[in-house]
Amino acid sequence: MPDDRPDTDAAERRGLSRRAMLSGTAMGAGALALGLLGTPGTASAASLKNGAWRNPALGYFPSGGHFGADRGGVPHAGQDVTNSTGTAVYAAAGGRAYRVGWGVLGGRTGNGIILFHGNSTYTYYGHLSRFRVSEGSRVSAGEWIGDMGTTGNVTGPHLHFETHTGGLNGIVDPVSFMRARGVDLGGGWSSIDPGASGEVVEAIQYLMRYRGTNLVIDGDYGPVSVSAVKSFQSSRGLYADGQVGPKTWPELVATVRSGRNGNHVKAAQTALNIRSAGLLIDGDCGSVTVSAIRSFQDVNRLVVDGVCGPLTWRALVG
């Protein structure tokens, strides 16, 4: 079983500078980005696109905000995602809030949150305007943990997002790290492979029921569900590989709007709950569900119309 206790790594004990922490890591970032969540050495045995990771924020990549960019002689340690102040910031994966506060990983990034995900894997969220979790609390993948802001050294509101493996000194390229786990930090559709599990799989199963199957909603993307998805892909002229990714999602999702009911509504309610909506999964798109859709659209700077269409779906399952 993975150890879920935060490790006190050497970089933190010795108080190494951010410059020293970055030294020597950038060249190996591509290889490390394929690394570790789960038992070390098992990455090749099972896909990392297992439904355990989520996009931490919607926005765009600003010029010069990429991993390794020169910041006054110090390589940039993360990936910036720009949007307006107050945009929701979500936990990239389940774990524990290891540090919450000002300057927890360098004062330049202001208010920040370090999440610990087990197996010496961490994510960091900087420049926040508001915290929505407290230090030591458990968080789930996709949970709303803070708001984008301008604290620290910034020229405008954005999220500074970092990924670390092998301890806090193991800084890796967040774009590559998250892509290997089926997440497009640029805001595209997620990729879910056979063997995945969890709430996103439940949403897929509800959508497949809406499309005419009789799948059990168990959150297990095993052989029965994979076979159903492959049949669906074939029926839509898609490559039948069983991966629910950027080509399959647009065909699979269905518009959810006020007054509708059914399994597609249950899928949307499940996806909204990943993002902290707290809805009853009843398949009824009444006023409560419409309000939750509108709230999600608002805090993610989408068009606020209360209709769960393709753009909202893409943000929900990313």
Write a concise synopsis of the structure shown.
By secondary structure, the protein is α+β, with helices and mostly antiparallel strands. It has 10 helices and 12 strands. Strands 3, 5, 6, 7, 9, 11 and 12 form a 7-stranded antiparallel beta sheet that branches. Strands 4-10-8 form a 3-stranded antiparallel beta sheet, with no helix packed on it.
Notable characteristics:
Muramoyl-pentapeptide Carboxypeptidase, domain 1; 318 residues; globular; seven-stranded antiparallel sheet; three-stranded antiparallel sheet; alpha+beta; 2 domains
Query: What is the subunit arrangement here?
Result: single chain
How many strands?
12
The CATH architecture of the largest domain can be named as Distorted Sandwich
Please give the largest β-sheet: 7 strands, antiparallel
Task: Tell me what the structure shows.
The protein contains ten helices and twelve strands. With 318 residues, it is α+β, with helices and mostly antiparallel strands. It folds into two domains: 171 residues, Glucose Permease (Domain IIA), CATH 2.70.70; 119 residues, PGBD-like superfamily/PGBD (Muramoyl-pentapeptide Carboxypeptidase, domain 1), CATH 1.10.101. Helix 5 packs antiparallel against helix 8.
Write the SSE topology:
Elements: H1 10-14, H2 18-22, H3 29-32, E1 70-71, E2 74-75, E3 79-82, E4 88-90, E5 95-102, E6 111-116, E7 122-126, E8 128-131, E9 138-139, E10 144-148, E11 158-164, E12 171-172, H4 174-180, H5 199-210, H6 223-235, H7 249-252, H8 263-274, H9 287-299, H10 310-317
Antiparallel strand pairs: 1-2, 3-11, 4-10, 5-6, 5-9, 6-7, 7-11, 8-10, 11-12
Helix pairs in contact: 5-8
Protein name: Peptidoglycan binding protein
GO molecular function: metalloendopeptidase activity
Domain Peptidoglycan binding-like: 199-249, 262-316
